[in-house]
Specification:
Strand content: 15-25%
Number of domains: 2
CATH topology of the largest domain: Rossmann fold
CATH class of the largest domain: Alpha Beta
Helix content: 25-40%
CATH architecture of the largest domain: 3-Layer(aba) Sandwich
Strand order of the largest sheet: 6-7-8-3-9-10-12-11
Order of helices and strands: EEEHEEHEHHHEHEHEEHHEE
């Protein structure tokens, strides 16, 4: 296969388990399986949406891919190179091509630094340009994300939440990356501002040819910006398909429940609300087989078997972690 057709990012069997310590010596007495055997690709110039409830492992997966936290197991290949075992100096070279937009625009910006320092720090770390050139680059980035160039001499507290997130986007774009993890970039913003930031991200992605892993829990936002969508529950991928196909014909019971819970702009529209029973199981001791089976109305004894955990292709490009074929 030609290199241009290879996925930019290939994730296989990604896992991140956090130890639970106890006793006098604080030894591990259990493991929180925040991400467990997750696999997907992100193609070049593609937006892959990663959606699920809070606590499903979306953010942990995104940070493990970038090695902001070290994965417990699995393979992450970026542009054909395995990055999970790279030493720090080689990983720094890769970080120029892999960036992140954080969820909280208030906590992600150092309040003691001016905007020109927040964005310019990336130029210094990666040795990009002269001091004069860096100022010009910063001004151009601010204008690209919809801010005035004179904003570079102000502090984060002088901006609104939406403006701060624009600064965070400019910081991520500073080193001209190929791939960005957008970690719920609009969830902390007012609804009126969310659309502006989403439109900005979509325009920048198309203009710059970026690949995005867009993490969110808002199904409407994910549908608007994503080419494909992966649905996570309790650290595992439940379903993955093109955005159009997933929303037209979801095949996993969990996806069906999420879709039924999403708000609709028509208050008179008739909908079949699917209410999930019980609580989300603890990631300390997830169910055997399909991790959703304890809350699934279609569950059978076969759902507890190991093979029920596997993603299978039910139609071209549409993958479902469910052993039943009669759910749609």
């Amino acid at each position: 296969m030609p290199a241009s057709l290879e996925p930019l990012l290939r994730v296989r069997g990604l896992a991140k388990h956090f130890p639970v310590r106890g006793g006098l010596l604080q030894r591990p007495v259990g493991w929180v399986k925040a991400v467990d055997d997750v696999s997907f690709d992100v193609n070049r110039h593609e937006v892959l949406g990663l959606v699920g409830e809070s606590g499903s492992g979306k953010t942990t997966a995104g940070r493990a891919i970038l090695r902001l936290i070290e994965p417990t197991a699995g393979s992450v290949q970026f542009d054909g190179q395995e990055i999970t075992g790279l030493p720090p100096h080689e990983m720094r070279m890769q970080r120029r091509r892999m960036q992140i937009i954080f969820q909280d625009p208030y906590a992600s910006l150092n309040p003691r630094q001016r905007v020109r320092e927040l964005i310019g720090e990336a130029f210094i770390v990666h040795g990009i340009g002269t001091p004069h050139d860096r100022r010009d680059r910063t001004a151009a980035l601010l204008e690209k994300v919809g801010l005035m160039a004179d904003a570079m001499d102000r502090y984060p507290h002088e901006f609104s939440g939406g403006q701060r997130q624009r600064i965070g986007i400019a910081r991520a774009l500073a080193v001209a990356p190929d791939f960005i993890v957008a970690d719920e970039p609009v969830s902390a913003l007012d609804v009126s501002v969310q659309a502006q930031v989403i439109n900005l991200l979509r325009d920048l992605q198309r203009e710059l040819g970026l690949s995005l892993l867009f993490i969110a829990h808002d199904l409407a936002v994910v549908r608007f910006i994503s080419d494909r969508v992966a649905v996570m529950y309790l650290g595992r991928i439940m379903e993955m398909a093109s955005s159009t196909r997933l929303y037209e014909r979801p095949r996993h019971p969990y996806t069906l429940a999420l879709m039924s819970a999403a708000p609709t702009p028509d208050p008179d529209a008739k909908r079949d609300r699917i209410l999930l029973e019980g609580d989300i199981p603890s990631p300390l001791n997830p169910p055997t087989g399909c991790v959703f089976r304890t809350r699934c109305r279609f569950a059978t004894p076969a759902c507890a078997m190991a093979e029920a955990r596997n993603l299978r292709e039910v139609e071209p490009g549409h993958f479902v972690s469910c052993i039943r074929d009669d759910i749609a």
